[in-house]
Structure formats: structure tokens, C-alpha cells
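Anyone able to model this chain together with inosinic acid?
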Amino acid sequence: MRTLEKGKLLVASHNQGKIKEMIDLLGPFGFEVVSAGDLGLPEPDETGMTFEQNAYIKAFAAAKATGLVALSDDSGLCVDALGGDPGVYTANWAELPGGKRDFAFGMQKVEKALQDKGAIRPKDRSGRFVSVICLAWPDGEANYYRGEVEGEIVWPPRGTAGFGYDPVFKPEGYDATFGEMTAEQKHGWKPGDTDALSHRARAFQHFARDCLDAG
Ligand code: IMP
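re: yes, here you go
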């Protein structure tokens, strides 16, 4: 596994919600963080069939364009009653005709698909958020880290915190949705802490233990 030197680290994302969470998670490690959005890099097409493939597409495109080591996240919501959908297409499910993303629309689409399946009882509405973090070097080498959090899809949406599908996801063992949690409750994690909660924080925890020598 290739090790990571301290210095400038490029977060290969244009999604402000994800960038904020990655900056929070990278905070204790003393990197100089820049994002692909800040540098005006183009957003590559996510043509992969898996979270790993799409995470690599994003991280490698950014690393190659800048010569910096790049960290990406590809993530999504996988609902059991929908055969794992929307999965890698989670962002696409929120696209309005014309291409603009509206996550209220995406959440409604998931709810309609669940209703069409007759998935009304909480036990029929299980799913998980998945995050794959990819660390890619300009020469094409890459490391991967996966995090998942089990939960249930609730309706109507609850809470205004976070981003994307947070208001309809209630993690197992909690009464609140991600949309009702503080940033600290959802993705807070630093070296020495016990397990993180969110999929992204769990993937990050693997990355930090492997590459940053964090406990
Ligand atoms: P992608 O990784 O760019 O393909 O986008 C994944 C999509 O999944 C995002 O646009 C969000 O809508 C959704 N998503 C991923 N992680 C989260 C999360 O932590 N909370 C809410 N929605 C998320």
C-alpha cells in the first residue's frame, strides 16, 4: 500500500456537501486541502458500474490534471427492496428533466419506487449508504477504502442538516435521520475515537488508519 506524504491534497469533488465533510475529516491531519471545484477542473463523466470505478475516474482525472495526489468519494444509497437501487445512480435519480439536480425530487422518486413495491413497513424499507474513497496518484496508482452504514428509508423527509438524501435516511439504532443530526453526530471522527457513524466517515477512518498512521 503506497503511503501519503503530508502537503497539498486535492479533494476531487464538486459537491459542496461532500467537500465540507471531507475537509472536516481531514482537519486534524494538517493537509493543505484544495478542491477540484476551487481549481475549476471539469467534472468527469461517471461512466463506471461500481462505486470503486467511479471513485477512480474522479480521483485519477483530478490527479492527472494537476500533478497532485487526489482523494475522491463515490457514494450512494442502496435500498434492498429496490434491488440495490439507486446505488451508483443516486445522484442521477435527483436529476430533473433538463439535468438540474433536486434532491427533494430524488427522495420522492425513491419513495414512489418503494410505494410501488408495497414497501410500507419499516422492516421492508432497509438499505445502506455506501462510500468508496479513492486516493489516486498522478501516475495512476490508487488505494481504495469502503464504508457502509445500515439504516431505513423514512417518509416524509425529516430535518434540514447535511445534504442529498440525508432527510430520509435513519441509521440503525438511532431515532434521528441524518438530516436531523449535527455534522459532528453524522460524520465526526478523529484519531483515537471509536467507530464513526456515517459511511463516508467510516471509509475515511480506514483511509486514516492505513495512510495517516491514525489510531
Ligand atoms: P456521486 O458520488 O457523485 O455519484 O453522488 C452520490 C450521491 O449520493 C450524492 O449526490 C448524494 O445525493 C448521495 N449521497 C452520498 N452520500 C450522501 C450523504 O452522506 N448524505 C446524503 N446523500 C448522500
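The beta strands are 8-11, 32-35, 70-79, 126-136, 142-153, 169-171.
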